[in-house]
Amino acid sequence: MTSSEAVFAQKASWIWYPGDYEVWMSNRMQNRRTERGSFLPPFWKLDSHYVLIDFHKDFVLDAPETANVYVEGQYNLKIDGKALPGYPKKIEVPAGKHRVSLKIYNQASVPAVFIEGKHVFTDTSWRVTYEDKEWIDASGKTSDISSTKYFPAGSWNFQDPKLAPSAFRLPVQEQKAADVQKEDHHFFADFGKETFGYVKLHNLKGKGKIKIYYGESKEEALDTQKGELADEIEVNQPEAADYTLEGSRAFRYVNIQFEGLSANDVSMLYEYNPETRRGSFKCSDEEINKIYDVAAYTLQLNTREFFIDGIKRDRWVWSGDAYQSYLMNYYLFFDSPEVTHTLLALRGKDPVTSHINTIMDYTFYWFLGIYDYYRYTGDQAFIKNHYEQMQTLMNFCLKRRDQDGLMEGLPGDWVFIDWADGLSKQGQVSFEQLLLCRSLETVALCAKIAGEQADAVTYDAQASDLKKKLFSYYWNQDKHAFVHSRINGKATDNVTRYTNMFAVFFDYLNEQQRQDVKKYVLLNNQVPKITTPYMRFYELEALCALGDQAKVLKEMKDYWGGMLKLGATSFWEEYNPAKSGAEHYAMYGRPFGKSLCHAWGASPIYLLGKYYLGVKPETAGYETYRIEPVLGGLQWMEGTVPTPKGDIKVYCSKVEMKISAAAGNGVLRFKSKSKPSCKGAIIKSLGNGKYEMAVSGGKDYQIKYSAI
Amino acid sequence: MTSSEAVFAQKASWIWYPGDYEVWMSNRMQNRRTERGSFLPPFWKLDSHYVLIDFHKDFVLDAPETANVYVEGQYNLKIDGKALPGYPKKIEVPAGKHRVSLKIYNQASVPAVFIEGKHVFTDTSWRVTYEDKEWIDASGKTSDISSTKYFPAGSWNFQDPKLAPSAFRLPVQEQKAADVQKEDHHFFADFGKETFGYVKLHNLKGKGKIKIYYGESKEEALDTQKGELADEIEVNQPEAADYTLEGSRAFRYVNIQFEGLSANDVSMLYEYNPETRRGSFKCSDEEINKIYDVAAYTLQLNTREFFIDGIKRDRWVWSGDAYQSYLMNYYLFFDSPEVTHTLLALRGKDPVTSHINTIMDYTFYWFLGIYDYYRYTGDQAFIKNHYEQMQTLMNFCLKRRDQDGLMEGLPGDWVFIDWADGLSKQGQVSFEQLLLCRSLETVALCAKIAGEQADAVTYDAQASDLKKKLFSYYWNQDKHAFVHSRINGKATDNVTRYTNMFAVFFDYLNEQQRQDVKKYVLLNNQVPKITTPYMRFYELEALCALGDQAKVLKEMKDYWGGMLKLGATSFWEEYNPAKSGAEHYAMYGRPFGKSLCHAWGASPIYLLGKYYLGVKPETAGYETYRIEPVLGGLQWMEGTVPTPKGDIKVYCSKVEMKISAAAGNGVLRFKSKSKPSCKGAIIKSLGNGKYEMAVSGGKDYQIKYSAI
């Protein structure tokens, strides 16, 4: 391959209608769940891709050019509107300006095309539509009025023309068990830690049945009646050969019973999404280091075709779960496409007939996910291309408001908030209004980016009106806190943590309110405790935002350290230190119902990156950023935070900081007992022992200081 | 098979979500079009079925029962909410009350199930949903609030469990050519009349290429450059064997060129929808009889999986074309499912993003189709099950009204009306408002049937408001007619036939206006003539409604007789007697662009049944009906009109009528110079030589009279 060929080969990609592959692939992925051998699909509506798509691009060529054409679907291929006969595998485009277009029909999978030529190739600069709204008159003349909306093509950068999008699979890698107990007709394997993939039986021979019981815990694998995952297969294999199961499962332990068959070993094909850990964290506390590693592994396992909730079950894309994965991702992989793929899979197609995953809060987390996505990546194109879908989803919400302009659970709406005994979902729940308010702010922001100024004004006004109501309806001066809900138009005096802690890091509170919330809610044991890592995420974030990293460090060691002490090799869906033994594995009324590898368990990645290393964007896409290291009781820490412009590296001990950023303009903020110094940089005093220093990309800074 | 088995076997049927199979099958059908070997799909949006469906039914059994289960898709099967393992092919339902449910995922084709047991079997009494909106709490308890909407399952009465819905094909029957000229490397076959199917080459042998040029006319088949349909296939067949082409085509003539191959004969596999001709018409005029037969054959050819426009092209479902087929169908096949299948295919899924087929008038014909469907069949269940889809389509229309409350063509709207040179589509076209008015009346009627009284009031008010506007904005007292349009808020003085003739049979005019329209529009040669059978349909209907069957008979003989004289074996898309020779075959700027077998050419079936035999429903589903025979210059006529309750038979000469109806209550109206008589019946005089007689089902009447 010559070097110019290499250049264009890197650019050509399979393309399709934007969002369609996400919808199609998430259907495929989410329908892989089984429960004790029965198919268990999602209970919400699944959408479908558009089955007939028009693709085009105009090319200006100096010389004629031939390109190879690969298509998934039944298609025609046109040059300047004139169809070539049949289903051409090559196209010859003459010199000059010419339009290449295709119309592709595919019911079973996404209409997709890959064209591979020197200049004529497919990429996201192609324009696509599902409705071209063209017609002709009786003379054959095409109408000149058209309201066809074209969008830039979607792509996952699949760059191999021979690998059709519908054939995409995650890669696998064979892994040996850490320990296998082999008896006649029976294997019991321990893979040493939570894992995911396909069980492989070596030299399997004979005719009969194999029963496989999987366990995230030993107890689960041994319980052949009540474990969550089991497979039963019939095999007739007179000659010994390796046999790999068809379905992928989550497990650490595998309990295998052979009837009429024998094998001599068991391994597994680990299935994974190849991610690069760009972020890192290491510190003086070995338990925290272990927590970080297990959290990173937990997130890796749940980062698949999309961000999923858990690998044993549900293996579905849940918006509230995914929202936390986005945030962790910005501090570990910084895989932006994984975020947009997940957002588009969740959004599905119009019409909106229910909340995302049927959960009201999960609709709002979808908007919050967009808010953060823009903040961390600065990707305006995504916002512009999908602004209409934000609008139709927001309109669905706004139409469901009651006479007070608030949202409460209507029939068919699941008000989730958290798994917590006795948590009220009745009436106008303050937490839902708070999330709606931030969602409105998000759509207003996106309207501005999309150039829809009038919309922006409307959404901004609605957000600010709702924010006022939030304080006038729910803030209880005596309780120094937001109350949980209004029922029949009257505020209850029930205080819960949710609204209060979110209001802290949404920056909705004044300083007095912040301190009140800290004292009367977050540090108040009378307010019901949170027992899911899901909501602990936000609780600890609020404490960090209030500057209490020292307390949060202790909480991390207690809570996540608690799971490690129980032998966790990945973090759980729920952890209640008050329980003991196999009680920990129960949930949903089932002895092994709990997921022991749940993405929302991995939040220390986010907390350590954002609030200890202290790195976050100040303006979209890290154009400007802040670095505000806080040791929180650690002796030292060092780590890397990925950004779209390269990495930001931070080392911090009690007397020294080392900072380097690949690009962009940042500001370092810190406290010091002594006057700090940095060669080649000016440190500004802000008073009260606070200091600030400008950081420029490409330079290394070494700061001498004295931690308070 | 025992007789009780036979009974249940007749009832069990493949079922799916209502409307989904129509959407899926119409995608498949409409994507079969080719133009000179290039794939030519529809240019409007194609929708898709729901990919994940929940099916259930509650059974009460005296004894346990085993039933066979056939499924298209990946599924689970539950009894009382508990899933059976794997993909069971049988289900055992215990005695007592039990719920059988399935959840089926299928991306490529419609999720469908066939269960075959004595009492436990699938039919349209099953309930289905695409969104069950159920959730659980942390204890595993299912929510008790649910807003899930269940609908009765859809079905096409596919009663063979082994024939999956996705494998459905229309039957074929081999037919010989009427004449084949065989030369070396060349066949020219004439099948004697327009036909449709797959060319079959007998004892094909060798290796090389076959080029096939199809022609509805001889000229087209001989024109290898500009005929509309051509196939080119490569064959390598060392041993002689029959070879059938993969694609079905429309043709009378086939021109075949062999390169490197030989064959000894050619035939074709006629592909057809097996319909029973329940309606019939025969009279003293042989030319009219021939017109009726060719019209019936034309409709038969275009009645396929759905009612299509034409068999050469487009082979698509066009709402305005289909609307006429519905009406003809009520007088020929009375195939009600064919109507609902076509209506549902056209309606597709929400959201509505453009008019049906992108044409504003075609959206309205969809509503008119519902209006007539209810009138002729009395099927309330269909109205109830699809009322929401009527509403969302009507809302799309109502949102597009301008400041005057009228609809004009917005960007992306095709205002079609008819193929006619110089026909204005600008501004507020009166014809579109007229169709909108009847559409509103239709939705109001359906709202009543669906029990939505408040909606009915709203739609009725909107219809009556629009009707007033129609007269105040468009009725021109000097022209004694509706004018064509308003431009910039001012009525033009352009008179066209469309609005005026529809207003006649919509019964929107008073007697004076009716006579004015007849004189100043219909019989006025200054008003531009209509040259498509499409609009001639309505023009002649209006004349019939005005009692001028004599003139219409002459017109039929001239116009349809004119096509027969030119050798037509099916009726055309357009016929202009002023043209000559091969000019007749041209359209859309292409020498053979015209379709010579177009459903809208078959309207004499409807006119002869409704306005000569004079049979039509007075109340929905022929609960009551009218028989008003009009000879219109014929010596005698006889025929059958099908109804949901059986056939109505009419014989009428100038001195005698014979009437029999299978069921229901009808009234016979006629004129007589002399006092008529009928044994066993009372004839009431209405004055002015008009008479009326009650007709009861199951009796034969013989009336002596004397035609005026």
Please explain how this structure is put together:
By secondary structure, chain A is of the alpha+beta class. Among the domains of chain A are: 3-167, Galactose-binding domain-like (Jelly Rolls, Sandwich); 172-271, Jelly Rolls, CATH 2.60.120.260; 618-704, Maltose phosphorylase, domain 3 (Sandwich). In chain A, 29% of the residues lie in helices and 28% in strands. The first copy, chain A, has a six-stranded antiparallel beta sheet, with no helix packed on it. In chain A, a hairpin with a 2-residue loop joins strand 31 and strand 32 (690-696). In chain A, helix 4 packs across helix 14 and helix 5 (319-332) runs antiparallel to helix 6 (336-347). Chain A is globular and about 80 Å long. The N and C termini of chain A lie far apart (60 Å). The model of chain A is unreliable at 1-9 (pLDDT under 50).
In short:
Chain A has 708 residues and is an alpha+beta fold. Among the domains of chain A are: 3-167, Galactose-binding domain-like (Jelly Rolls, Sandwich); 172-271, Jelly Rolls; 618-704, Maltose phosphorylase, domain 3, CATH 2.60.420. Chains A, B: One of its GO terms (biological process) is carbohydrate metabolic process.
